[in-house]
Amino acid sequence: MAAAVLAAARLLRGAGAGGSRPRFGPPAYRQFSSGGAYPSIPLSSPLPGVPKPVFAAVDGQEKFETKVTRLDNGLQVASQNKFGQFCTVGILVNSGSRYEAKYLSGIAHFLEKLAFSSTARFDSKDEILLTLEKHGGICDCQTSRDTTMYAVSADSKGLDTVVGLLAEVTLHPRLTDEEIEMTRMAVQFELEDLNMRPDPEPLLTEMIHEAAYRGNTVGLHRFCPIENIPKINQEVLHSYLRNYYTPDRMVLAGVGVEHEHLVECAEKYLLGAQPAWGSAGAVDIDRSVAQYTGGIVKLERDMSNVSLGPTPIPELTHIMVGLESCSFLEEDFIPFAVLNMMMGGGGSFSAGGPGKGMFSRLYLNVLNRHHWMYNATSYHHSYEDTGLLCIHASADPRQVREMVEIITKEFILMGGTVDTVELERAKTQLMSMLMMNLESRPVIFEDVGRQVLATQSRKLPQELCMLIPGTSTHDPTWKEWSSGGFLKRTDGCKVPGEQRAVCSDCPGNVKPDDIQRVASKMLRGKPAVAALGDLTNLPTYEHIQVALSSRDGRLPRTYRLFR
């Protein structure tokens, strides 16, 4: 035992003069980690012998402006410069479910599922994906009520390949019988999933649009009705594509690319290209303007078993009430966006921690005061010719009447007094959300494409923020947007710094009067109502309409002889 202890001690001390201690001795010092090579140079000074770093230079506006070029065939090419190795490029088409009035509903839904399938050049979807993988690329297609978007994110060096692939996917799809049959199965599965998922928001959004715009434009079905699935074939799809997939209804948008290079690729692949459905011009384009009708859509359903498991969601009834707002082209769009942010809301158990909308009206007035409410959220859907501001709420089926009355009261309060502090908070949150979202390259791409498709130009985030000034941007040193990319006031505003947010003379500043004005205008219209679940205690549409026309938002009292 003593010999073992002695041996261990010798190992810890080292083996003597002739022994080595590299393993158990103190670690050897390294020049690159100790700083001993440059002992007297402060951290604020560059190190000698180190190459000078090259930073991304600011060129004028840092090329903030979105460049737009229109080709001879009417197709628009838009680009936004952004530093980085990768780019996002895509084709946006002015088509969607709102244009299906003369067709079978569901064509846009089918085209979304058929995107990036076989084309004249590519025999299969796998071949397309392998081509993109060579440039580290991914692809996606999304359709909305008014826009279809084909997008690819890839290395900027593969721009020529990407634009050629997008041209193939958009103009030369094969749409074989086998692909259409597979799409029928995919659509069928998606419809079944839509009706089974615990989150009812997509279904309620579909229902509220159907109620608000009965049988026209954005009120048409975005999802393919189940009875139309077997009826959609190649002939039907080609008939639709012939009218709506024309160059004058398309924008090729790119972020993180050189504009001249993008235009060259567009001229190479999209100028003079003959689509798979023939070169005959569009003859039957629907140019209808959205007609707001108001109304109610109800779907009675057993919601007691939508979320099975160890902690199932309790049975809830979901109500969404909406009123017509305005289009994104109108001046009132910004006040409506601020109003929507001021309402805010969310689920009673939503993640995010303190500060995530906790000071919005639907949190303070609804979720904090009524413990039985599971959700209260505000949504604003805006289109080229109309808009819809909605409140979605969820509660136990036995308390549906009280829940609807709470919603109608909140709508009435929109037209009442607006506190300056909550207004400034909403404006700051709106600008923060806008700027944070536009840090993402795919979001910038979609913003560029949608704006150019609708207005042939793009408003930059800085220009939009000029329309929502609050305490963070309202400064007497502003001036108009200029080539230098700065903002500076030129109207001689002399308001002290602590009062700048409430200066009524400053142009573009959303004021409490603006919120009251747009809310009062909205409340004069008919409501749109969507209801899902156990609707035994749902008030009649007429009673909801009376509540929204009253001063306090209360539902008319009902009396029963027998309970």
Description:
With 563 residues, the chain is α+β, with helices and mostly antiparallel strands. It is 34% helix and 14% strand. It has helices at residues 2-13, 31-34, 107-114, 125-133, 159-171, 177-196, 201-212, 234-244, 259-269, 333-343, 361-367, 400-414, 420-437, 441-455, 461-466, 512-523, 541-549; strands at 67-70, 76-80, 86-93, 138-143, 148-155, 250-255, 295-300, 317-324, 345-347, 373-382, 387-395, 478-479, 528-533. The strands form two sheets. Strands 1-2-6-3-5-4 form a six-stranded mixed beta sheet, sandwiched between helices. A hairpin with a 4-residue loop joins strand 4 (138-143) and strand 5.
**Largest beta-sheet details:** 6 strands, mixed
Structural class: alpha+beta
Residue share in β-strands: 5-15%
Shape: globular
Helix proportion: 25-40%
Radius of gyration: 30 Å
Between the first and last Cα atoms, what is the distance in angstroms?
92 Å
Please count the beta strands (DSSP E, at least 2 residues each): 13
- Mean pLDDT over all positions: 85
Counted by DSSP, the helix tally is 17
Strand order of the biggest β-sheet? 1-2-6-3-5-4
Uncertain ranges: 14-25, 29-33, 351-355, 471-505
How are helices and strands ordered from N to C?
Answer: HHEEEHHEEHHHHEHEEHEHEEHHHHEHEH
